[in-house]
Specification:
The complex is a heterodimer. Chain A is mainly alpha-helical. Helices cover 49% and strands 7% of the residues of chain A. Chain A has 2 domains: 41 residues; 146 residues, no CATH class. Chain B contains 18 helices and 4 strands. The chains are: A mainly alpha, B mainly alpha.
């Protein structure tokens, strides 16, 4: 019993010491270092207009459904790209709901981009991402949407495809991950074109 | 799989893991020796000494296995209550800019059990439930502590095996403090800053309101994320700051952060195998254990990758061109999602960068089976090694039976008492997983939580209890364990499953450590089974796979395997 009580005392005190060091000093040190070295990134890589309005984060996708924008992927985060409730659909491979959603997405994608009724559609274009906040679309997806965006905006196709290249995130160090086009940055650049 | 770049990334990963194993193992030798000297001594030694003085720890005094166990249990209980009460009353505590209310008793119990046991199952959605204080204090403390405890237990077991005629197996407090101060905290500090450089946030601001290009508003969750993500990966905890975990761009913004996060899951478990070889003075044994783990890891990745890249024939029939991208992020693609899923379930991490629930049946079977082998493929920090040593002892025992000799491991005779403890561990865990899954399958509270029907729904339940007992924490996340009607069944059963999975494993293992420590050494003879080389690696793999398969094949057949055939027949639920 005596050892038990002394162990209990040690446990209580060590919990307190750990709380101060690991839950106080450590996160504050990372906070101080992060704010000093990478302030923009530590605060969410926010995109701000000249007048100070926050337009979003370069890392988080937004819902784009209009023809003049490159459309983003389907999202199960809240009612779509809700950055306070990240989530995937979590529908399994034999889910009727998922098959129905994909069927509808494929049809809509073919129609809006004037594709043949049996044209294969890039997988990312008709599926929901894991976070519901995926900022990227695949290169194939972007290039299939480019003619529609160019036509809606009355821009030369070459201007639009050049922008796709500008806002393509290559593999990190040309090795890691997969290339993708940041749809938010691309659409923002399109909005900023002055004719 | 005709993506040369993916193969290159895979080779880089295995190569990098191999490269860090020995240096980190050498460092562990110093950390896990109470008198060991490290290059951090000038900085950390005064803090270590002060901690011992404040807490009344005598670093020169070692404990018996029972003393070690009592200390561990008391520490776990105290910290579990610490977390429980913070979560319950977070509305009265600081750093709650969004004004989140306190958690319900069932959810607070589930979460406290989850983080104490290194499971980090998340019944809640972080960004809409937890205050910054809860994340930073109540949860982060366990990310460090449960990881340090895991490594301490592995150290105690290996010491017990290495010693002879000994009554003690180390000092729990010293092990925990040294692992935290010399290994986890310094690594995390550097790692967290790297993560911020990649775009992971670290601030205490209220959520930001953005005006999107299409004219809607988007509220952007903020918080001290980087400091938590670093220890979440390195300590194989896996509890995410956000609901989407490492798929969320603020938790895993770039493929580079993804690669380093994956490497950090395996770093310490891999180094521990080197430390094992060094401590048992049989370095080739350490590498043999490493090799068995590596082989099972590579096979798992290949199966999962193949299944995902082949995609879903039902969706392909509807016009989808490529592999399975449902529940995956573009920047990671199919390969890095399959790789991450395999790593996080080989280890007891449980972080996810893609939704396992939306994997193809066989792609989802790999993470599920990984967990059911007991997470011994590198495994959790410490937990992977002590889990694997259970299988090593079993493998040596089986080899002994085959040739008709008394089995020996590391110069110790393995006796009936040892095998009873080994079997106790294996059977308690399997019985808990299967028993609770069976109960949930026939109960209304069980099926009410499902997001999918048919065999996939069964898989969701089997995965949940496997993950809880295995202290993994990943999920077929469609399952709702914290329903809005307040039914506490899922939270409670999962919480209990996690406690069983952690503590009914640890206590027999420490008993085993104590029993081994007291044995005498028998010199190796010509008939001694050699625990190194090709034969041993094969036998060890066979033991792990057979025990897992024999126990769980019927369950897997009713879940992912039958679903695979139904998918081929275009059956929908």
């Amino acid at each position: 019993m005596k050892t038990f009580l002394s162990e209990l005392r040690t446990a209580l005190l060590l919990t307190a010491v750990f709380a101060v060091l690991l839950c106080g000093v450590y996160p504050l040190a990372v906070w101080a270092g992060g704010q000093a070295l990478f302030p923009a990134r530590a605060n969410g890589s926010l995109l701000t207009d000249a007048d100070g309005t926050v337009r979003g984060s370069a890392l988080l996708g937004q819902s784009f459904t209009s023809d003049k924008y490159f459309n983003s992927r389907a999202s199960a985060a809240g009612s779509g790209y809700d950055a306070t409730s990240s989530s995937g659909t979590n529908f399994g491979p034999t889910s009727q709901k998922l098959a129905d959603a994909i069927k509808a997405n494929v049809a809509a994608y073919r129609t809006s981009n004037h594709l043949a009724p049996d044209a294969p559609v890039p997988a990312d274009a008709v599926t929901a991402s894991a976070s519901g906040l995926d900022p990227h679309i695949s290169l194939a997806n972007a290039h299939l949407q480019a003619p529609r965006v160019a036509q809606t905006r009355h821009l030369p196709l070459a201007t639009v495809t050049a922008l796709i290249t500008t806002y393509t995130d290559d593999r990190d160090l040309h090795i890691f991950g997969e290339p993708g086009v940041n749809a938010l940055l691309l659409n923002r650049a399109l909005d900023q074109i002055r004719l | 799989m005709n993506n040369p770049n993916a193969w290159f990334q895979f080779a880089l990963f295995v190569g990098a893991l191999l490269l860090i194993t020995k240096p980190l193992g050498l460092y562990l030798v110093r950390v896990l020796d109470a008198q060991g000297r490290t290059f951090l001594d000038r900085l950390v030694k005064p803090i270590e000494r002060l901690t011992y003085r404040v807490c009344g720890i005598d670093p020169s005094k070692e404990q018996s296995w029972l003393g070690y166990t009592v200390a561990l249990l008391v520490f776990s209980l105290v910290s579990l209550l610490f977390t429980y009460f913070i979560l319950r009353y977070q509305d009265h505590l600081p750093l709650n800019p969004q004004g989140f209310p306190g958690l319900s008793p069932a959810l607070a119990f589930n979460t406290a059990a989850s983080f104490t046991t290194n499971t980090n199952w998340q019944s809640y959605s972080g960004e809409s439930t937890m205050s910054y204080f809860s994340q930073m204090v109540a949860l982060t403390i366990h990310n460090f502590m449960s990881a340090a405890c895991g490594i301490a237990i592995a150290a105690a077991l290996v010491r017990g095996i290495a010693r002879h005629y000994a009554k003690t197996i180390g000092n729990f407090w010293v092990d925990t403090v040294r692992v935290t101060y010399y290994l986890l905290a310094p690594l995390c500090l550097v790692f967290a800053l790297f993560l911020v450089s990649q775009g992971i946030i670290q601030n205490f601001q209220p959520y930001t309101t953005a005006h999107t290009l299409e004219g809607a508003t988007q509220t952007i969750a903020q918080g001290p994320v980087a400091s938590q993500v670093a220890i979440k990966m390195l300590g194989t905890n896996g509890g995410g700051f956000f609901n989407a975990n490492a798929a969320h761009p603020f938790e895993n913004p770039t493929p580079l952060s993804n690669f380093i996060q994956m490497l950090s899951i395996f770093a310490i478990p891999s180094a521990l195998t080197w430390w094992l070889g060094r401590t048992l003075k049989n370095q080739r044994h350490g590498w043999a254990v490493w090799s068995a783990m590596a082989v099972m890891f590579v096979v798992g990745v290949l199966v999962c990758w193949k299944a995902e890249v082949s995609g879903n024939p039902i969706h392909q029939h509807l016009g989808v061109a490529d592999g399975n991208m449902e529940g995956k992020e573009v920047r990671f693609g199919v390969f890095n999602s399959a790789l991450f899923a395999t790593i996080t379930t080989d280890a007891s991490c449980g972080a996810v960068n893609a939704m396992h629930d939306s994997f193809t049946p066989l792609g989802g079977l790999v993470p599920l089976f990984n967990i059911e082998t007991g997470e011994v493929i590198f495994g959790g920090v410490g937990a992977g090694l002590y889990g694997m040593l259970i299988f090593v002892i079993l493998a040596v025992f089986i080899a002994g039976l085959m040739v008709g000799r008394t089995p020996e491991y590391a110069g110790k005779k393995i006796e009936a008492y040892d095998i009873k403890l080994v079997m106790l561990v294996l059977m308690v865990l399997a019985a808990t997983i299967l028993g609770l899954t069976a109960w949930a399958s026939v109960a209304k509270w069980g099926t009410d939580g499902l997001n999918n029907a048919g065999p996939h729904g069964f898989s969701e339940m089997l995965y949940a209890f496997s993950s809880a007992v295995g202290n993994n924490g990943s999920a077929f996340a469609g399952l709702t364990a914290n329903p809005s009607n307040g039914d506490p069944h899922w939270n409670a059963t999962l919480g209990i499953a996690m406690l069983i999975g952690r503590f009914l494993m640890i206590v027999p293992i420490l008993a085993l450590a104590g029993n081994f420590a007291g044995k005498r050494l028998v010199p190796a003879s010509a008939g001694t089974f050699r625990t190194k080389g090709f034969t041993f690696v094969l036998l060890l793999i066979g033991t792990v796979v057979l025990v897992g398969a024999l126990t769980f094949l019927p369950g897997l057949a009713m879940g992912p395997i039958v679903e695979h055939f139904l998918m081929g027949a275009s059956t929908l639920f």
